[in-house]
Amino acid sequence: MANAARALLFHPGNDFDHLLLKGSQPALLNAGAGCILRLALNPDAFLLVEDNENDVILIRKALLKANVLNPLVVVRNAEEAIAYFMGIGAYKNRDEFPLPSLVLLDLRLPGMNGLDFLKWLREQPGFGTTRVVVLTGSTIGRDVNEAYQRGANSFLTKGDFERFVEIANALSGYWLWMDKAPETHRPSQTPKRTTPS
């Protein structure tokens, strides 16, 4: 797979840490909660906005099982996701923290919720067209409708590990191989920081 990112997520000491990457010199990044992300400089990073550590672990394992090896950067809330997109604070280095080609977004987040983050993202010049897959436990019709109204590209419901593997296979089959990502870039001016109402 020529386009496959050369990245590996692992918890130190788990069964993934023996895997080696070929043909790259990845940077080591702290992805929070004792997790380490090996990230080769690759524009095809995914951004996971998720506060539930159990779901983060399941998503990581499911992506590996589905052979989706794109770099996965995890942030725990919408405010961190905004900082990532804006390239501020810990996310200032764009070589280490490239704009993601896909966002996996939970709706139920502490602080700003996922719907408000989605609205904020769609208002930004340069990267407002970034593809967003809402990945949530909510099955409320109102949430589904509002997510699409605010610009979600897809709405998927979480479940057990096998459901996460199904989702990872769908990401691999459609979003990575069939769908063409929009061009995104960091604007020369600072994006709007206002919190949506």
Topology diagram in text:
Blueprint: E1 7-10, E2 27-30, E3 36-39, E4 46-49, H1 53-65, E5 72-75, H2 78-86, E6 102-105, H3 114-122, E7 131-136, H4 141-149, E8 154-157, H5 161-176
Parallel strand pairs: 4-5, 4-6, 6-7, 7-8
Antiparallel strand pairs: 1-3, 2-3
Helix pairs in contact: 1-5, 2-3
Cα-atom radius of gyration: 16 Å
Q: How many helices? A: 5
Poorly predicted tracts of residues: 1-43
Describe the global form. Answer: globular
Largest sheet: 5 strands, parallel
Looking across the biggest beta sheet, what order are the strands in? 5-4-6-7-8
- Helix and strand content put the structural class at alpha/beta
Distinctive features:
5 helices; alpha/beta; single chain; three-stranded antiparallel β-sheet; 8 strands
Account of the protein in words:
It is a single chain. This protein has about 200 residues and is of the alpha/beta class. Helices cover about 30% and strands about 15% of the residues. The chain is built from five helices and eight strands. The chain has helices at about 55-65, 80-85, 115-120, 140-150, 160-175; strands at about 5-10, 25-30, 35-40, 45-50, 70-75, 100-105, 130-135, 155. It has a five-stranded parallel sheet with strand order 5-4-6-7-8. Strands 1-3-2 form a three-stranded antiparallel sheet, with no helix packed on it. β6, α3 and β7 (about 130-135) form a beta-alpha-beta unit. α2 (about 80-85) runs parallel beside α3. The chain is globular and about 40 Å long. Mean pLDDT is about 75; it is low at about 1-45.
